[in-house]
């Protein structure tokens, strides 16, 4: 017992940032690289950035690739859909892997397993092989889930929205940066003396190497939890190796996860769709040249540097004052406004107004992504990984759906497709009104009159047998820390848990 | 009345401006040049190895003075309809400033009345596709004023195929495979290291 006590004291002193009872950081210092919290933050956003660069490395070089591989517009469209559909199941699988093996091993492994798809892009020689490499490269976007899971494991409720928003946003930046990086790398290689049909192939080694290196960084420099890695903690008994079936059951049985998965499809999914179609839209409708179209396309993705983090920060600021109800209202307002600007984008006819509307649209849609992940860490404690995975997967499903319905074939002109997509955003976002947390309330209702507490809600995920063995200890700490979601006025007045109360089961 | 005159005058000037700024419509061009090329219908040519011999000149059945405005001639390699199908970036548009049918210039010379010929080795930039050859005659302002082509108006005869260089090299292939193998082996290595760490913690 003595030894344990001393170990805990030394843990308290050794963190560079302020921590709570779970040793999660209560502050977020962007320019620090201190282990484990800020170091994990930088490792995770950089590797997620690398995966985004790889997944969207092909679009800016398509004018060359389509000539080399003799692709038709249908081939290109299908490859674009394949690139985002691979991650649908990968993201759910990643959520499970994080719950079971920890985000460090899960993300490093996935990043390494998808790097061959990037290298093999250099060898593709037909429409089918091109589609396959884009499909498998797209699996790497599942590292989004490990990023969000990792941040949720290391940062407390006070700053989790910020940490998730910045990590997610700076990772998504890769989708914009690649539209600038790949053409530059291609030009450089051609300048050295390669023929253009060889130069584009060599160019793909850059994202491949970047991905491989980032995986090594995560494995050797990262740590799953404030107190150690999953493998160490599993053995010492501090972290129980959970039962997959139970974790899965609590994730899919929680309707809030499904609602947020749907709405994420209409902020993040829309962002992916736009990444795939916007350069061609400006090129065709406004007759700008390919380089200009690429710069405009890049600026949409580059807005992520502040807009998604901004959404996360906004979620935390609103959450501090108004609690979970504030987070939900802000998410609904921002995402609905994103839909309004999307409708406008399809309607405007002049180039400069169109670029301005696109930039405003990008800010709202990306902020909505950040706001979504300000809510996700509170949906489930035990099944955080799978819930994050489901939401992330929902994002990709949204991208597949919108591209298939509005941007494939000649049924709608691109501008009509964009406007209709905006209408769909507004309709699908309205389901946020259905989210209700008994301990905090929803958009239109206050907390339950039965006096449900955070503990009641989170403890309902564990059976009494499991509680007897003490598996729920981490969740207990989390419930206590999540009381901040009541908002400022209510923290003192809401009911506190008494030891002998029997918690109810909540859906 | 005056406003109508002003509107009409503006429209007229704008139309002239359009012509000055190269908005020529292909359907307005007379086919006064005769062009023939060495590849036979359906022949496959290899980039960098095979060459095309093009012969062009004025069609003598046109009256004297037809070619007075002709200043320059450009010979171009143009996509046949089958290679334009489902590929909007190669689309045929009547407005020549937006037309993407002919993307490669074989030769660019001053116009003289005699019949010319030249041999052109197919450049490395040319992608695999089905083509024909077209010649445009330009006036001194740089606008197209006439054309000739090796195929018929429907672009269905005398088409030849060009086979491009692959762009794949053995060294690139080997590098791809090596880097991929390294990544996969590293993933396996990570698992083994992790398991060893688990056992060490146990002890």
TrEMBL record, chain A:
Tagged with keyword Cell wall biogenesis/degradation: no
Membrane topology: Multi-pass membrane protein
Stretches the record annotates as Disordered: 479-507
The organism's taxonomic lineage, starting at the top: Eukaryota, Viridiplantae, Streptophyta, Embryophyta, Tracheophyta
Chief location: membrane
Bias type Basic and acidic residues, positions: 480-492
Protein family membership: Belongs to the major facilitator superfamily. Phosphate:H(+) symporter (TC 2.A.1.9) family.
Transmembrane segments: 43-64, 100-119, 131-150, 170-189, 201-221, 255-274, 286-306, 326-346, 353-379, 385-406, 418-437
The entry's keywords: Membrane, Nitrate assimilation, Transmembrane, Transmembrane helix
Protein's name in the database: Major facilitator superfamily (MFS) profile domain-containing protein
Transmembrane helix as UniProt keyword: yes
TrEMBL record, chain B:
Key word NAD present: no
Keywords annotated in UniProt: Cell membrane, Membrane, Nitrate assimilation, Signal, Transmembrane, Transmembrane helix
Pfam families: NAR2
Residues spanning the signal sequence: 1-22
UniProt key word Membrane: yes
Residue stretches spanning the membrane: 174-193
Task of the protein: Involved in nitrate transport.
Similarity section: Belongs to the NAR2 family.
PANTHER family linked: HIGH-AFFINITY NITRATE TRANSPORTER (PTHR34806:SF10), HIGH-AFFINITY NITRATE TRANSPORTER 3.2 (PTHR34806)
Protein name per the record: High-affinity nitrate transporter
